[in-house]
Specification:
By secondary structure, this protein is of the alpha/beta class. Helices cover 37% and strands 21% of the residues. The relative contact order is 0.13.
């Protein structure tokens, strides 16, 4: 059986200590295609005993894995990358089928995920220590960098492959053991596919494990378990706050990438057509189901009407529907209840005075691209992370008001500034209280070698490049006394 065959029987099982085994939980879970509603697979949930076994396997195997030569670790990551390239089309189809990704988004996710693996392959050679001076005669101070041990990764459903590999690949490359708990909506692309790739690449048994079950049943136990040193989570702020609290009670480190209410500021000297084009992509890619997606588009009053006209014209040309169609930009939401939630928000915004210029209707799990203009700062919809294809356009009288509106949120993940003056854009970007801001680009950006992370309620910690090395390793002080010391008062 080839790596990516549709009838891959292991993709209904847990992966523990190098073996594909049935889950031990009582609950049976269906994995559904969000566009067609068809059942992709049925699997038996894991339970606490499965989690115990997975963490123990990761703990034991990581002892030897961390000692392996840098070339061995690099070789596994290079092989994973090669397997991904070999099976690209099959992986893209899995992303379309399981997470409702359009082909446009699935292709982008695949490319980002592969770049993460390629970047992580260099990490074994980038674990640097230091030798520091001492005031004690004959003492040599060594600061060594080591893997932290075992990392627990809780994966999301929206960019399942990319956002899981963002933690898994660096953690393994740096010598850690890993246990993944994938999102229940995407157990294949957020978990079992990754385990399959690493198994085929020759990763030793037990270094990587996957336990799949609902967060309400095993989530707390997964976080509070005594083995993992770090819990990496990507998801909603509400769930992230609970994980942070529970991890804190157990003095456990976290890497939390949470929600966003991201804003694009369009200043009066911006290229309107380019800004509108960028805003359409940043809003509607993957149906807006991206933590970095544009939630609010804040436009200077001098160009507001022209921008709205251009944005509306471009949005009308978007194709919505079947995610497998190469021309589709807006596909299904992950669940139909998300459509109902967004329709309620649209209805509320209209009642509060917003103008509905386009959309506001749905067919099954597909919500038509929707545009709301003249939205005011105090309206309910402005303070929500929409996670859907609903564009909110607001007017600002000047640059100062635009910055104030952009910062008027508890979130601070990503942002955007459009202007004809790049230095002005940089200065405005510095005033936006967000972990990431992009000048003359939309807010959805992620590069494997660059830091990624938010401020305020958008998370704790940084991913990517050297920041990932810092997150998944620890430093220790080991001193060597080359000549015996004389201790005052001791003979």
């Amino acid at each position: 059986m080839t790596l990516m065959e549709t009838e891959h029987t292991t993709w209904t099982k847990q992966f523990i200590n190098g073996e594909w085994v049935e889950g031990s939980g009582e609950k049976t879970v269906e994995n559904k295609n969000p566009y067609t509603g068809e059942v992709i697979a049925t699997w038996r949930s894991s339970n606490k005993e499965d989690i115990d076994q997975a963490y123990e396997a990761a703990r034991k195997s990581s002892v030897e894995w961390k000692k392996s030569l840098p070339a061995v670790k690099e070789g596994v990551l290079r092989k994973v990358s090669a397997l991904m390239a070999e099976h690209k089309e099959e992986i893209v189809k899995l992303l379309i089928t399981e997470s409702g990704s359009t082909r446009i988004k699935a292709e982008a996710e695949f490319a980002s995920a592969k770049r993460i693996v390629d970047e992580a392959a260099s990490f074994p050679y980038r674990m640097k220590g230091e030798i520091l001076p001492s005031n004690t005669p004959g003492k040599e101070n060594r600061v060594v960098r080591e893997p932290k041990g075992v990392i627990g990764v809780i994966g999301p459903w929206n960019f399942p492959l990319h956002l899981c590999l963002r933690s898994v690949a660096p953690a393994i490359a740096l010598g850690n053991g890993v246990v993944i708990k994938p999102a229940s909506d995407t157990p294949i692309t957020a978990g079992w596919l990754i385990a399959d790739l690493f198994e085929q690449a020759g990763l030793p048994e037990g270094v990587l494990n996957v336990v799949a079950g609902s967060g309400s049943e095993i989530g707390d136990y997964f976080v509070a378990h005594p083995v993992p040193k770090v819990i990496s989570f990507t998801g909603s702020t509400e769930v992230g706050q609970g994980i942070g609290k529970l991890a804190g009670e157990h003095l456990k480190e976290t890497a939390l990438e949470l929600g966003g209410n991201n804003a694009m500021v369009v200043l009066e000297d911006a290229d309107i057509e380019r800004a509108a084009e960028s805003a359409v992509f940043g809003k509607f890619l993957h149906q807006g189901q991206i933590c970095m997606a544009l939630n609010r588009i804040i436009v200077h009053a001098d160009i507001y009407d022209r921008f709205v006209e251009s944005f509306l014209a471009k949005t009308k040309k978007i194709q919505a529907g079947d995610p497998a169609d190469a021309q589709t930009l807006v596909g299904p939401l992950i669940r139909e209840k998300e459509v109902a939630r967004l329709l309620d928000l649209i209805k509320g915004a209209k009642a509060e005075g917003a103008r509905l210029l386009l959309g506001g209707t749905s067919k099954g799990s597909v919500l038509e691209p929707t545009v709301l203009a003249d939205v005011k700062p105090d309206q309910h919809i402005v303070q929500q992370e929409l996670f859907g294809p609903v564009a909110v356009i607001m007017k600002a009288q000047d640059e100062q008001e635009a910055v104030r509106l952009a910062n008027d949120t508890p979130y601070g993940l990503s942002g955007s500034v459009f202007t004809g003056n790049l230095e002005r854009g940089y200065q405005v970007a510095q005033q936006i209280d967000s972990g990431m801001v992009h000048v003359n680009d939309q807010s959805v950006n992620d590069e494997a070698h660059v830091m990624f992370g938010g401020e305020k309620s958008s998370g704790i910690g940084r991913f990517g490049g050297d920041w990932a090395i810092e997150k998944f390793t620890r430093t220790r002080w080991i001193s060597i006394q080359h000549q015996y010391r004389d201790y005052p008062g001791v003979q």
